[in-house]
Amino acid sequence: MNLRELESFNAFMTYGSVTKAAQAMNISQPMVSRLLNNFEKSVGFELFNRKRNQLTATSEAQQFHATVLRSLNAFREVETQARAIANDQLGAIRIAAQPIYVDTYLIDVVAKFKKAHPNVSISITDTGLEGMLDMISTRQCDLGIGITLDLQDPNVLVTPLAQSRAVCLMPVDHRLAGFETIDIDLLRGENFVELSIGSPLRTKIDYIFQIAGWPRKIAVEGRTIRTVSRLVERNVGIAVSDPFAGLLVDHSKVVARTLTPTIEWDVALFTATRELSAVEKSFLAFLRAELPRLRETGCVV
C-alpha cells in the first residue's frame, strides 16, 4: 500500500462515494476506483461490498478506517514538523552562559528569538567559563556565551561576536567620578570589590595590577558581576568590571569610567567542533542583530 491509496480510502470513507472522493482529491473517478482496488488487495480482506457498480463499506472497513486516519494524521504531523525544521521553526537549543550575559545580553536575544520561533524550546544555564566549556565538551549544551581571555581548548570552537573593554565602577559621589578616563595609578589606596579568584576576568585584572607594581586593597569578593555591582552601589568600594554591568546598576548611584591601560576581551559564541544546525544558525543571527544596541550602551566596541 502507499500514501495515495490511504488517502483515497479515507476520502471514500469520509464522503461515502467514489464520485465525492474523486472531487475531494481532485482526480478522476476511475483513478479513485483503481486506488481503492489496489488498497483492498494489499490489506488482504474485503473493504467494500459491490452492487451494481456501487461500493459500500464493510464493517471491517469501518473498523480499519480509524487506524488509517491515525496513520494519515501522523504522516501530516511528520510533514508539518519537517517544514517547521526547514524554516527554523522547530527544534531545541541548550545554552550555557556566564552569569553577566544571562542577566543582560542573552535574555533580550532569547525574548526576540522566541517571538519569531515560538515552537523552538530553549534552556539556559548560568555557569562560569570552566563549567560552560565542560558542558560543551560533554554535549550537555549546544551553545555557550562567554569571554575569551587566554582561552585555549581544542575541543571548543570559538566564534567572536564583539569586543569589550573593562570599566571602573564607582559611586556617583566618588572623588574620581568627574573623570572620563581613569589611569589605574589613580586608584591607589581604594577599596576594591572583586570577582572571586579563578574568574578569567579577575585573573586578567590581577595581571594588570601586578604590572602596575602595587597591591590592591580588596574589601569584598563576589562570584558574579551582579553581586559586585550591588556592592559598589552600597559604597563598599570600587570595581574593575565587565561593561555589561552598566545594564545592571542603578545609574543614580553608580557611574562607569574608561580605564587605562585597557583590558580587552572578545564576547564569543562557544560550540563543539561541528556544524551548527539550522535553528542554531538562526539564533546566532539574533545574537549578532543585538550587537548595535549593545554598542550604543558601551557594552561592546
TrEMBL record:
Residues 1-58 form the HTH lysR-type domain. Keywords: DNA-binding, Transcription, Transcription regulation. It comes from the Bacteria. Belongs to the LysR transcriptional regulatory family. GO terms for molecular function: DNA-binding transcription factor activity; sequence-specific DNA binding. GO terms for biological process: positive regulation of gene expression. This is LysR family transcriptional regulator. InterPro entries: LysR_HTH_N (IPR000847), LysR_subst-bd (IPR005119), WH-like_DNA-bd_sf (IPR036388), WH_DNA-bd_sf (IPR036390).
